[in-house]
Design a protein that fits this description.
The chain is α+β, with helices and mostly antiparallel strands. The chain folds into two domains: about 160 residues, 2-Layer Sandwich (Gyrase A, domain 2), CATH 3.30.1360; about 120 residues, Aminomethyltransferase beta-barrel domains (Alpha-Beta Plaits, 2-Layer Sandwich), CATH 3.30.70. Helix content is about 30%, strand content about 25%. The chain is built from ten helices and 14 strands. The strands form three sheets. A six-stranded mixed sheet has the order 11-12-13-10-4-14. The protein has a five-stranded antiparallel sheet with strand order 6-7-8-5-9, covered by helices on one side. Helix 3 crosses helix 8.
Length: about 300
């Protein structure tokens, strides 16, 4: 047994490996309560002085996003680069909906099934170039989805010219949500960037210039039911981005929120929440049966239609 097991940094946490988000130390300074999600520690909520319990803190965070603006670190989502001339065809075979027709600069929500027709994972995938997609997974399934996709690439579809690279640790990503989202973004994004509905429509994606010379990726996606963007920067700038969001958002009453508030808003909006991806649900169970393409083949299509699942 290694001496580090008795005297190492994680001796009070049953020796489990832990991963910290790029903004972890900033969140700790804010008094965040953390929760283990997969191998990561995520801010669950941010209590303030005088609040009696977690529910009071979470309710405040939800109301702050609904009425103003808040941000949440979503860096723990799995991130996979899909490269190659057959990247679109490959994604068509692993998702129930079509991605080969997705335009460059757009994102699409996708659902993948196991071979028995049960929902495996969900996430958004963006097309950054004709031969380059950026795929996201749930936090808990990040490693498993990467293994699944590699199995598909190497064993099921070896004829496809496509390469996969896990980039989960390379990007820090923040969801900024609420009616004042654009006000906050205009303080950190170069003024030349058009953030209007016309210039940056829903499910749009593009690289943007940030104030100070840094470049990042901006995604017009929302899982809170409010106006929202997700901003992604190299991981080494994650801590600085969190601090900058707090500073730039102060005039608008910006509030950091954790996974509990995010879960509340997802449920209120009707988006899939983590517990619903339990390994026992179908696309139809989740109200997403109409997403299942009838014009292409994909993993799980045949078994998803068996009598035991559709009754």
């Amino acid at each position: 047994v290694a001496i580090g097991a008795f005297a190492g940094h994680h001796r009070d946490e049953t020796f489990h490996a832990t991963r910290l988000t790029p903004s972890h130390h900033w969140a700790a300074e804010q008094g965040a309560v953390f929760v283990d999600t997969g191998l990561w520690k995520r801010a669950q909520w941010y209590p303030r002085a005088g609040e009696k319990d977690w529910l009071e803190s979470v309710t405040r965070e939800v109301k702050a996003v609904r009425g103003g603006v808040g941000f949440c670190d979503v860096s723990t989502l799995g991130k996979i680069d899909v490269h190659g001339p057959d990247a679109g065809a490959f994604l068509d075979r692993v998702y129930i909906n079509t991605f080969s027709s997705l335009a460059v600069g757009k994102a699409r929500y996708g659902l993948m099934l196991r071979e028995d027709g049960i929902v495996y994972d969900d996430g958004t995938t963006s097309r950054l170039a004709e031969d380059h997609f950026f795929l996201t997974t749930t936090t808990a399934k990040a490693g498993l989805v990467m293994q699944h996709l590699e199995f598909c690439r190497q064993v099921l579809f070896p004829e496809l010219d496509v390469q996969l690279t896990s980039v989960s640790d390379q990007w820090a990503q923040f969801s900024i949500a609420g009616p004042k989202t654009r006000d906050l973004l205009r303080e950190i994004v170069d003024p030349a960037e058009d953030l209007s509905n016309e210039g940056f429509p829903f499910m749009g994606v593009r690289e943007v210039a940030l104030r100070g010379g840094l470049r990042g990726r901006l995604f017009r996606i929302s899982f809170s039911g409010e106006m929202a963007f997700e901003i992604s920067v190299p991981a080494r700038f994650g801590d600085a981005m969190a601090r900058n969001l707090m500073l730039a958002g102060a005039p608008f009453g910006v509030t950091p929120y954790g996974t509990e508030a995010l879960g509340v808003m997802r449920v209120e909006k009707g988006h899939i929440a983590g517990p619903e991806l339990s390994g026992t649900t179908t696309a139809a169970d989740l109200g997403l049966g109409k997403m299942m393409s009838t014009k292409k083949d994909y993993i799980g299509r045949v078994m998803a239609g068996r009598e035991a699942l559709v009754d």
